[in-house]
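User: Before I run my own analysis I want an independent prediction to cross-check against. Here's the chain; please return only the structure tokens and, at the end, one sentence I can use as a sanity check.
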Amino acid sequence: MPDEAQQEYRAVQWAVRLRAILDVDDLTRPGLLITIKPTTCSRVLADIVRQTPRGHFTVGWLLSKLHQRSFGVVMLFLGILGTAPIGSSLPGIALAVIAIQMMAGFSEPVFPRFITQRKLPSPYFVRFGLRAVPVLRHFERIVHPRWPSAFHSAKDLIAIVVLLLSAALLVTPIPFSNIPFAVLIILIALASIQADGLLLSVSVLCGFVVAGIAFAGAWEAIVGLIP
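Assistant: Structure tokens:
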């Protein structure tokens, strides 16, 4: 076999092996760049859960492990953190900061040190993270870009509804009352990441309704305490 033909044959063999290892598109066509499939949020969460330090972790550590720090991704992981029974005050404050920064036009979220350096117990996060991974995988199969007009219309309301839901996380001290608000934030974040107009519209509408119910209940409780 001539040298040039042998070299080309070896190049094709290496391309096939590399494709099998990396699970990428066809590498044998000339001029085609290597494109690795994007990492899903469920895979990122599984990696974070596996790397969670023993004893405790910080929000700063969690943010440092994210592959990207867009508002949607950070909202998603803070929403997951808000479902755990480790106190919803810190995720609620962090989500409120995100909502305000979105309104102010920030390109990515920036948190003060008292949020990033706050220690949180690892066992609760690991437990709820392991439960959230298969649920996220299921949603990633059914959430996809659709209803672009509805998406762009509802996108302007994301910051407002997240601010209301994060405030509801802070004003409702009832056990497990944080779960509905956190789940809605997770759905809004998934819809934002995947540009799903249908899911975003439904989640934003439900967010306004649930936040309204929470504030009405809190107001009644305050009025009841007044003699």
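Sanity check: Residues 41-225 form one domain.
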